[in-house]
Amino acid sequence: MVEIRFHGRGGQGTVVASKILADAINKEGKFVQAYPEFGVERRGAPVYAFIRIDETPIFDKSRIYSPDHIVVLDPTLIEAIDVTEGLKEKGWIIVNTDKKPEELAFPTKYRVATIDATHIALKHQLGTRATPIVNTAIVGAVVKVLDLARLESVIQAVKE
């Protein structure tokens, strides 16, 4: 089983990103769970989303405490909370930032990939300058780094 935890803020599309990714992976014939965790917080508050992926049906409905990989849509969360909490050794941390992976201060036991999803969103007028919608670019990065689904499956999931 592969478990992924997403970190973002309300309004960025964190939950939608997890659902698009889950739909794309499901199209590949795998069993998937995707669910968010948030309270009554307002736009801009931290939001979590979780995905479980397996070759067999998934019955565990609990929160993911020890993810294989982490996806960070808002890089300010890196300083605000411990996004690596519970992350398994050699797990990927995929971060929306204009920095290079080696510029981020993560322990070397993790692998780091970066994508400037904010720049991509602004370039393609996704969202506003104040709140760019970075989820689509993040999904593309996750699929590329983790090799979870084919591009065709992602495109179909976005269309649906």
Q: What does this protein structure show overall?
A:
The protein has one domain: Pyruvate-ferredoxin oxidoreductase, PFOR, domain III (Pyruvate-ferredoxin Oxidoreductase, domain 3). The chain has helices spanning 14-27, 77-80, 117-123, 135-146, 151-159, and strands spanning 2-9, 31-37, 46-54, 69-72, 92-96, 111-115. Helix content is 29%, strand content 24%. The protein is of the alpha/beta class and 160 residues long. 38% of the residues are buried. Helix 1 (14-27) packs across helix 4 (135-146), helix 1 (14-27) crosses helix 5 (151-159) and helix 3 packs across helix 4 (135-146). The chain is built from five helices and six strands.
List the helices and strands and how they pair.
Layout: E1 2-9, H1 14-27, E2 31-37, E3 46-54, E4 69-72, H2 77-80, E5 92-96, E6 111-115, H3 117-123, H4 135-146, H5 151-159
Parallel strand pairs: 1-4, 4-5, 5-6
Antiparallel strand pairs: 1-3, 2-3
Portion of residues in beta strands equals: 15-25%
Question: How many domains?
Answer: 1
Major sheet attributes: 6 strands, mixed
Class in CATH? Alpha Beta
Low-confidence stretches: none
Mean pLDDT across residues: 93
Report the principal-axis shape: globular
Biggest β-sheet: strands ordered side by side in the sheet: 2-3-1-4-5-6
What sequence of helices (H) and strands (E) makes up the elements? EHEEEHEEHHH
Provide a count of the helices: 5
How would you name the CATH homologous superfamily? Pyruvate-ferredoxin oxidoreductase, PFOR, domain III
What's the total count of β strands? 6
The CATH architecture name reads 3-Layer(aba) Sandwich
Using only CA atoms, what is the Rg? 15 Å
Helical fraction: 25-40%
Find the structural class using helix and strand composition. Answer: alpha/beta
What is the terminal-to-terminal distance?
A: 26 Å
